[in-house]
């Protein structure tokens, strides 16, 4: 068989011609000219065409192979579009820059869930309905009290959110659109309450109940920082900064945690279990855990003069150190969210009169040096959404180990919208990838004494 231009020894690697005018590509054995497969080319609204390989195995006996899904579209979606080359992010077609400047997180939630911006009456009803689901069953507080005080908040989030299915069994029929929406509202509404309870538990303070008169982001900050013994007013600048952070993290097409939610949900798992699996995936430092890792990195660097040494380590493939908050699977240009976050950083730190925050100064210097460094430039490594978010969160008084929990609060709307979209997609079925097997050939069992 022909050795293709990659180094797969022993495998025929027929070279696919480009899409043909009739909207198909053909898999042809270059030695015999035999057509192995005729595969449709599908075109979306914007973005790359896709080769529909659903019949590849039936036609050719072969699987496609794409570890890490570098070039695989797992689904059709109408929710979020990311152009990695242009550094563009659209929620239901609206540019993230416009939503960040003109909208608010609950309105963005409505948009992501329904596909359209709400008219005033619809928005007021949506806000009312979400606000009136923010309280948790009192038993949940006993569940949360079972954790150690020093447990990582993401462990609590995974456990408590997964356990919510035990409290709402009557609305876990995933085939019912009405029950899917009730669960979406509950998850959207209760995540801030759970995140705030995780924080209070870690510092030994009493839980604060949500206040229905407060906005979504304001309520989160209230539940985190208010105490029962005195009145507490959330700084409106911080409330707006938190609302912005939530908008920027709301959805991001088929990232690792969203793909996890879809795969979990594809088996029919209830929405709470599906979102709990997404929280678990987001926790990883290569994904949502990066914001916490960025701050640890900035603290480890400590001073300007240690930046070159750190960058050398980040460029050394033999070293496990990476420049956290840099690089992205899709963005090969500036992550548009990072630009917005950087501007917000300056505003919040100015407002809090901590403009000379040492971590921000190191982050700005690190970014300046890295963006001129051939290693990062040649690999299209730019700051991503996590590079600046941690600096804002820290300035707001949020501890580092809670950063990813805030990310999970924001991403819940994206997870439930994508999970719901999967349920209404007639082409979707249980996710069950195949593999290329490189283990032992079939062999017979050998008795212990004969080995
Ligand atoms: C998020 O998918 C999403 O959309 C995620 C997200 C969302 O909103 O859901 O945008 C949120 O998770 C943002 C990413 C946060 N993670 C980090 O900041 C962690 C640091 N970044 C890297 O771990 C990495 O860039 C990834 C995981 C983000 C992307 O990894 P890829 O696409 O698999 O890229 P790669 O590992 O193949 O890297 C390509 C090259 C490699 O070098 P060579 O093999 O070519 O020599 O770039 C290097 C990597 O070593 N590289 C880095 C680097 N990121 C990639 N080198 C140093 N520092 C880095 N941060």
Radius of gyration: 24 Å
| Mean pLDDT value | 92
Count of beta strands: 6
List ligands, each type once.
Answer: s-citryldethia Coenzyme A
Q: What is the helix content?
A: 40-55%
Distance between the termini: 38 Å
Run of helices and strands: EEEHEEEHHHHHHHHHHHHHHHHH
Question: So what's the oligomer here?
Answer: single chain
Low-confidence stretches: 1-15
Task: Summarize it.
With about 450 residues, the chain is mainly α. It has helices spanning about 55-60, 95-100, 105-115, 120-130, 140-145, 155-165, 175-205, 215-225, 235-250, 255-265, 270-280, 290-300, 305-315, 335-350, 360-370, 375-380, 385-395, 405-425; strands at about 25-30, 35-40, 50, 80-85, 90, 95.
Observed structural traits:
451 residues; mainly alpha; 3-stranded antiparallel beta sheet; 18 helices; 6 strands; disordered N terminus; binds s-citryldethia Coenzyme A
Tell me what the structure shows.
The chain has 451 residues and is mainly alpha-helical. Helices cover 47% and strands 6% of the residues. The chain has helices at residues 56-60, 96-102, 105-114, 120-131, 138-144, 153-163, 177-203, 216-225, 236-248, 256-265, 271-282, 290-301, 307-315, 336-351, 358-370, 374-378, 386-395, 403-424, and strands spanning 24-28, 35-42, 50-51, 80-83, 88-91, 94-95. It has a three-stranded antiparallel sheet. The protein has a three-stranded antiparallel sheet with strand order 4-5-6. The longest helix has 27 residues, at 177-203. It is globular and about 80 Å long. Mean pLDDT is 92; it is low at 1-15. S-citryldethia Coenzyme A binds at residues 252, 255, 286-288, 290, 314, 317, 322-330, 379, 381, 384-386.
């Amino acid at each position: 068989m022909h050795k293709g231009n990659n180094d797969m020894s022993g495998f025929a690697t027929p070279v696919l011609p480009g899409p043909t005018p009739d909207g198909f590509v053909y898999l042809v054995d270059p030695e015999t000219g035999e057509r192995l497969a005729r595969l449709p080319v599908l075109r979306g609204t914007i973005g790359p065409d896709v080769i529909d390989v659903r019949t590849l195995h039936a036609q050719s006996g072969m699987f496609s192979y794409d570890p890490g899904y570098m070039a695989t579209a797992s689904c059709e979606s109408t929710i979020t579009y990311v152009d990695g080359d242009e550094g563009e992010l659209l929620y239901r077609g609206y540019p993230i820059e416009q939503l960040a400047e003109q909208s608010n997180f609950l309105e963005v939630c409505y948009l992501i869930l329904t596909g359209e911006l709400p008219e005033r009456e619809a928005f007021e009803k949506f806000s009312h309905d979400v606000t009136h689901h923010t309280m948790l069953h009192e038993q949940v507080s006993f569940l949360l009290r079972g954790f150690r005080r020093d447990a990582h908040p993401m462990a609590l989030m995974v456990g408590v959110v997964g356990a919510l299915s035990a409290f709402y069994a009557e609305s876990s029929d995933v085939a019912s659109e009405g029950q899917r929406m009730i669960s979406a509202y509950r998850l959207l509404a209760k995540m801030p309450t759970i995140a705030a309870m995780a924080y209070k538990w870690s510092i030994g303070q009493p839980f604060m109940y949500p206040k229905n008169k407060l906005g979504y982001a304001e309520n989160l900050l209230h539940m985190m920082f208010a105490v029962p013994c005195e009145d507490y007013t959330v700084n409106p600048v911080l409330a707006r900064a938190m609302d912005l952070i939530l908008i920027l993290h709301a959805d991001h097409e088929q990232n690792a945690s969203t793909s996890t939610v879809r795969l979990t949900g594809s088996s029919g798992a209830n929405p709470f279990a599906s979102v709990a699996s997404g929280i678990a995936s987001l926790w990883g430092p290569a994904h949502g855990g990066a914001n916490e890792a960025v701050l640890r990195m900035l603290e480890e660097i400590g001073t300007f003069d240690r930046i070159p040494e750190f960058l050398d380590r980040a460029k050394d493939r033999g070293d496990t150190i990476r420049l956290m908050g840099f690089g992205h699977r899709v963005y090969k240009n500036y992550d548009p969210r990072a630009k917005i976050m950087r501007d917000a950083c300056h505003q919040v730190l100015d407002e809090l009169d901590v403009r000379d925050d040492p971590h921000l100064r190191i982050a700005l210097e690190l970014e300046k040096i890295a963006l001129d460094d051939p290693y990062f430039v040649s690999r299209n490594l730019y700051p991503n959404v996590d590079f600046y978010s941690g600096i804002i969160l820290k300035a707001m008084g949020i501890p580092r180990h809670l950063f990813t929990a805030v990310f999970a609060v924001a991403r819940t709307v994206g997870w439930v919208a994508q999970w719901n979209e999967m349920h209404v997609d007639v082409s979707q079925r249980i996710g069950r990838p195949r593999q290329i097997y490189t283990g032992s050939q079939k062999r017979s069992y050998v008795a212990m004494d004969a080995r």
